[in-house]
């Protein structure tokens, strides 16, 4: 049996519809509740309830429908009635088609150049990603939530109880010897992180409509500045190289240390790296033979004379040989 708690802490086993290969074929088209229920119920469970935990957007879409059935109101109305209206969050709404004339921003992805992202129809993500907000509103919401003015102290305690990495609608983030509670978000080219340090009554939120840099480095610099800890300012050190300087690095590389092969290709004056079974990502040159993808902390060093490629990430090094 799947419970509300299982869906809140992602231990339900309900398959995440966004991970299916056909998702991008229909995510821009309005979907009725019945069609979404049929789609989600057609998938096999990823695991038995309460035996594992894995994030699934399907959980929060189904929780949205449950709320609508219980209150006999739309999620949009409930959001205003229960949260944004009482809290005065004037810049937090249920999303719709993006309208730049209404001070709204499109989102973008970066693959050597910035490209406008397609817009997911908001009838699909519902409570899993259809809420539009600002950093200020998110910080206000977190502060009020942790004052027990939205839900009871006991309910908040349940939200903060972490099991297999998940609380009830909350995640826990470490910073040196401190913990914060919040959540991340990502849809199309938009990315967000918002969290609260209860001991210090500190809320921090970062939103972006296009990222090609590691957001964590920015957050660490902000928190280090606030707490008086040592921190490193993010570096933006890209240099431009000619196509003739990049061509020797193009090819497929394999390693005896890890199984995926990595294919290096070139688009205009940008190198792209693509591991087996994954999407390509752009590499930015910081020297004539060293390239980075700051968003995930990857550094790649090419040694043309030996046809080697050294991949560095999270303190580890992997040597690849050109095939």
How much helical structure, as a percent, in the residues?
A: 25-40%
Distance between the termini: 51 Å
Strand portion: 25-35%
Question: Which geometry do the CA atoms define?
Answer: globular
Unreliable residue runs: none
Radius of gyration: 22 Å
Major sheet characteristics: 8 strands, antiparallel, barrel
Mean pLDDT: 93
Total beta-strand segments: 16
- What's the number of helices? 9
Secondary-structure class: alpha+beta
Provide the descriptors you would attach to this structure in a database record.
16 strands, four-stranded antiparallel sheet, single chain, eight-stranded antiparallel beta barrel, 26% strand
Give a structural overview.
It contains nine helices and 16 strands. With 323 residues, it is an alpha+beta fold. Strands 9-10-11-12-13-14-15-16 form an eight-stranded antiparallel beta barrel. It has a four-stranded antiparallel sheet with strand order 5-6-7-8, sandwiched between helices.
What is the element layout, followed by pairings?
Layout: H1 4-8, H2 23-26, H3 33-42, H4 57-71, H5 75-87, E1 93-94, E2 108-110, E3 114-116, E4 131-132, H6 135-145, H7 153-160, E5 171-175, E6 178-187, E7 190-197, E8 202-208, H8 215-227, H9 243-246, E9 251-254, E10 262-267, E11 270-275, E12 281-285, E13 290-293, E14 298-303, E15 308-313, E16 316-322
